[in-house]
Amino acid sequence: MRILVTGSAGFIGSTLTLRLLERGDEVIGFDNLNDYYDVHLKRARLARLQAHPGFTDVRANLEDRAALTETFVKHRPQRVVNLAAQAGVRYSLQNPYAYVDSNLVGFVNLLEACRHHGVEHLVYASTSSVYGANTRMPFSVHDNVDHPLSLYAATKKANELMAHTYSHLYGLPTTGLRFFTVYGPWGRPDMALFLFTRAILAGEPIDVFNYGHHRRDFTYVDDIVEGVIRVLDQVATPNADWSSESPDPATSLAPYRLYNIGSHRPVELMRYIEVLEECLGRTAIKNLLPMQLGDVPDTYADVAALIQDVGYQPATPIEEGVARFVAWYREYYRV
Questions:
Q1: Residue 59, helix vs strand vs coil
Q2: How far apart are CA 206 and CA 184, in angstroms?
Q3: Are residues 186 and 175 in contact, defined by beta-carbon separation less than 8 angstroms?
Q4: Alpha-carbon Rg of the chain, whole angstroms?
Q5: What is the pLDDT of residue 232?
Q6: How far apart are CA 314 and CA 316, in angstroms?
Q7: Using CA atoms, how far apart are residues 298 and 214, in angstroms rounded to an integer?
Q8: Catalytic residues
Q9: Taking the mean position of all CA atoms in its chain, how far away is CA 311?
Q10: 155 Cβ neighbours under 8 A, 6+ residues apart
Q11: Could you tell me the pLDDT band of residue 238, with boundaries at 50, 70 and 90?
Q12: pLDDT range class, residue 139, cuts 50, 70, 90
């Protein structure tokens, strides 16, 4: 297939693009290479993709409607995976406008482009952060999620609503994936595993929020990518049994789907740090702090729907995943 992947220089986007290229798809990578974090890392990810003849690199912003339209006209993608977004819960407290520009304006531009150019299926990244103030575990896509705790989460919830509108009005098949704490090689430097590894190797203290009692559904990047590809290959269809009397938020009479994509195995943050210490052969100096504004204490994904519909089975325990990350980190940074 000919697939447009936005955020192709990103952590998940570059890993997904490489897998698609390796299975023989043609991929148009769309990324603006912004400086939210180390651009050199983004360029190194892209270098892995540019060795493949089936890869086309487009450098632009989703907010640039003309550039996005030109990309669709020129390359005619059959399917689209939208992973480009302004990420991060904490950064949304400092720079809210970045989230409006990328996650709202950019997303409606993408929906319009998909609508007008006959895209067969749009798969887009949502987040476990949409569960916000929900406390019932595990988090289910069939539960209401109307109480986000950060602007980042609110923009992702808005993406789900916008996608449903286009599925309903124009018959555009859309599938949203709520990612749960993705980690692994080529990861984002602003995420805990990266920050912890760098600090521990430098002999510096690490900030451990909520005194280490957070529980996160840490999900290895290869498991995530496998799930994304399975969903991409199965175009969203209407749910003929959907009822307005008891509406299911995860499905619709329109060709619309929402799924959690996680490991279904929450791990306490302190255990995650212990595994990292074992892999590094060093003990962390821990700066124990209260929970940060906008954060949630626990995440735990109910992935039953994804297992049932596409056969998704996350298979990587944190002991194996963290070890792979540490091996990559030592090699990439020559530590």
A1: strand
A2: 19
A3: no
A4: 19
A5: 98
A6: 6
A7: 6
A8: 152
A9: 19
A10: 85, 86, 99, 100, 103, 104
A11: very high
A12: very high
Cα–Cα distance, 321 to 200 (Å, whole number): 18
| Residues 7 and 84 sit within 8 Å (Cβ to Cβ) | yes
CA pair distance 171, 238, nearest whole angstrom: 10
Distance CA 207, CA 200 (A): 11
φ, ψ of residue 131 in degrees (nearest 5): -70, -20
pLDDT in tens, 84-106: 988 777 777 788 898 999 999 99
CB 21 within 8 A of CB 27: yes
pTM (two decimals) = 0.95
**One-letter amino acid of 222:** D
Cα 219 to Cα 14, 161, 192, 263, 266: the distances in Å are 17, 25, 13, 5, 9
**Entry field: residues in the chain:** 335
Quick one: 190 exposed, middle or buried, by C-beta within 10 A (0-12, 13-18, 19+)? middle
At 227, the amino acid letter reads G
